[in-house]
Specification:
Elements: H1 2-14, H2 22-26, E1 30-32, E2 35-37, E3 47-51, H3 63-71, E4 77-83, H4 97-114, E5 117-123, H5 138-148, E6 155-158, H6 170-187, E7 192-195, H7 198-201, E8 218-225, H8 233-239, E9 245-251, H9 263-274, E10 276-278, E11 281-283, E12 286-292, H10 317-328
Parallel strand pairs: 3-4, 3-12, 4-5, 5-6, 6-7, 7-8, 8-9, 9-12
Antiparallel strand pairs: 1-2, 10-11
Length: 338
């Protein structure tokens, strides 16, 4: 706690150095080997927040919240989960596409004006097989998104959040990707595309890029929650030197979204994602922390009711920790020990 408070105090005293417009500075993203790079081929680490979800907390997605994430938190990326088949709320995509499409339009406009990269995430949380009938609108969704935002350099597409289930293999995921990637490529040939991995985006060792019909500008997603998944660390540290990995969702607590904040495991992953060397190979890994929301649970970066009251820096203990990392550990700054 003392180290965290010291970090926060240093941040307030020294100010923050961040790109005035990350997209203008870095341009269209590209994958070179297993490293995300900017348009000029320089290694780049995207670091920011995943929103909780369009249908659950639309009040957390505003022009002002995005401005704060960039200016105060030093984020250069936001992730926007579009829940398609969570029927606990009638504003899921399957039942209310207009609600989602209008909000996505706003998010894309805000992120573009601020120069933030923006991940549009087809967010499964109930039906883990991409072949399930509840995902039948995915093709039309990515056709619409890639057509509307064809010329935008900041848009990233995440095809399927956390595939899971005994019948869901790498071949299942590849089948889905080989169908949807061409839809996006037709409209946006150079877009960065994120593809899920088996068992809730954790089985990186199962990834075989050779089975994809098109593996250009493709990265593979890995998700972890620090209090639950410390055992995955060594596999992760090995696999990031084999295939290009994007940690599109991770949390400081348990995978349930509850429980204690594990700063030690979080810091171990964060340090590795910033800079890791193995057998002379250096890699950095981009990430989005879950979540920039105000639900009463450990994984939320904001305290309850913060969004409705417009209190975008009203952080929880986990939010303090993440904000500190975003402010103090950009790729071009020395590492601070937290």
């Amino acid at each position: 706690m003392k180290k965290l408070l010291l970090c926060l105090c240093i941040s307030l005293l020294t100010g923050v150095s961040f790109a005035q417009n990350p997209v203008a500075e870095n341009g269209r993203l590209q994958v070179i080997g297993h490293q995300l790079c900017n348009e000029k081929g320089k290694p780049l680490q995207l670091r920011g927040m995943s929103m909780f979800g369009l249908m659950h907390m639309p009040e957390c997605l505003t022009w002002n919240s995005f401005k704060v994430l960039k200016a105060d938190w030093n984020s250069n990326v936001v992730r926007v989960p579009v829940l398609m088949a969570n029927y606990s709320n009638p504003n899921n995509y399957n039942q209310n596409p207009d609600f989602n499409n209008m909000l996505i339009d706003s998010v894309v406009t805000w992120s573009e004006r601020l120069g933030l990269y923006c991940i549009i995430d087809w967010h499964n949380d109930r039906f883990g097989n991409p072949d399930d009938s509840h995902h039948k609108k995915a093709d039309a969704f990515f056709e619409l998104m890639s057509t509307k935002y064809a010329g935008k350099k900041n848009i990233i597409y995440e095809l399927f959040n956390e595939p899971y289930g005994k019948s869901v293999t790498w071949d299942t995921i590849v089948k889905n990707a080989n169908r949807i990637v061409p839809i996006i490529r037709k409209n946006n040939p150079l877009a960065l595309i994120l593809i899920g991995t088996p068992e809730w985006d954790q089985k990186l060792e199962m990834v075989d890029p050779s089975k994809l019909n098109d593996s250009r500008n493709i990265m593979y997603t890995f998700h972890f929650y620090a209090s639950s998944h410390r055992s995955l660390y060594q596999m992760f540290a090995d696999q990031i030197h084999r295939v290009p990995i994007f940690v599109s969702e991770w949390g400081t607590c348990e995978s349930s979204g509850l429980g204690r904040i594990d700063t030690l495991t979080s810091s171990m992953f964060l340090k590795t994602m910033k800079h890791h060397v193995k057998l002379g190979d250096t890699v950095s890994v981009s990430w989005c922390n879950f979540s920039y929301g105000d639900k009463a649970e450990s994984t939320s970066a904001l305290k309850p009711n913060s969004c409705s009251e417009g209190l975008w820096n009203n952080t929880t203990a986990g939010g303090d920790f993440i904000k500190c990392w975003l402010k103090e550990n950009s790729l071009d700054k020395p590492m601070t020990d937290q």
